[in-house]
Amino acid sequence: MEDNKRIVIKGKDDTIKSSVPINSKSVYRKTKMEEEYVLLDFNSNVLIPFEKGDYIVTDYGRFSIVYIDKPKISPKGGYVYSQRFHPDWERLRNRMLFYDRQNGAEKAWKMTNRPEYFLDIIISNIKSAGLGDYSFVMDKSLTEMKALEFDATYIIDGL
Question: Whole-model pTM above 0.85?
Answer without folding.
Answer: no
